Amino acid sequence: TKISRSMSKVLLHSCRSTLRRAVGRGFTLLELMAAVAGTGLLAAIALPSYTAIVERQKVGQAGRDLQDIAMLIERYRTVQFKIPESLLDLGAEIPKDPWGRDYQFLNFDSPAPGVNGKIRKDHNLHPLNTQFDLYSPGKDGQSKPPLTAKASRDDVIWARDGGFVGLAEDF
Environment class of residue 116 by beta-carbon count within 10 Å: exposed (0-12), middle (13-18) or buried (19+)? Predict the structure, then answer.
């Protein structure tokens, strides 16, 4: 037991001296600055990538919503033998777009005044669809009838009567 007591004293003394050295050392200001700079650099690289991924997901969700709404419009046309005047006529709950705005709809045969001036057109000034327009004004919430307008580039559109669904700038 004398040997074990002396061994435990030596071991205790060794642990205390190691602990004192570890506590006394700490980090230098230069090491902390390097760690902060490295973290900032990683954040500067990751944040734009994350933002782009989130935006692509929102565009994809808007495209899926547009396809679902177009299917509701087609179902309405099949039963009523006409295109609805507004999305409210569909009798279904229409979701907001991923940016929190209402989807836009325009019936080309509507008796409302000024319909022809609101029909969205491609870069050759041809209408995007044959019977109605359906789109989300996109991230900026602004839109103009020609897709080449700056305000329309981020719109998510349903074009070619469903043959294309996606960003207006990709059309």
Answer: exposed
